[in-house]
Design brief:
This protein is α+β, with helices and mostly antiparallel strands. It has 2 domains: 34 residues, no CATH class; 91 residues, Nucleic acid-binding proteins (OB fold (Dihydrolipoamide Acetyltransferase, E2P)), CATH 2.40.50.140. The chain contains 4 helices and 6 strands; from the N terminus they run αααββββββα. The chain is elongated and about 75 Å long.
């Protein structure tokens, strides 16, 4: 280390950059490759079936979820249905818009294992306004 050593330091830094986990994931596009909705904020899909998932310990609730087949790539994901008794507004073969649920680093949130998305719209009607009784469900 000393004077006239900048070129060597720069080359060593470039050579060892791929050892950095975050840089390697970003450079190789690994996060986009395995992301179900392909890096976008929201995605549209069709509800295949409604399911209930058991919460992790110490909770014992049955969380209301649904299996959604995405239109853009045909993948199936599990999406949480937020709101008290909001699952009655989501039926099979409805068109829904899902978004990320907001877990750390794209992972699951809270006591729901394997659920990374939540339903925000059903047949182009906001789910929150549906279960508050402000609007009625649209016909398809």
């Amino acid at each position: 280390m000393g004077l006239m050593n900048a070129r060597k330091l720069k080359n060593n830094r470039e050579k060892n950059r791929m050892n950095n986990k975050v840089y390697r994931k970003k450079k190789l596009g690994i996060t986009l490759k395995f992301d179900s909705i392909g890096g976008s904020a929201q995605a549209k899909g069709i509800v295949i079936k409604k399911i209930q998932k058991e919460a992790k310990q110490p909770n014992s609730a049955m969380r209301k979820c649904c299996r959604v087949q995405l239109i853009k790539n045909g993948r199936e994901v599990t999406a949480f249905i937020p709101g008290n008794l909001a699952q009655k507004f989501v039926d099979e073969h409805d068109e829904v818009i899902i978004e990320r649920i907001g877990g750390q680093q794209g992972k699951t949130k809270g006591d729901l294992s394997g659920v990374r998305f939540q339903v925000i719209k059903v047949n182009d009607q906001p789910l929150r306004r549906l279960w508050k009784g402000i609007i009625e469900k649209g016909r398809r």
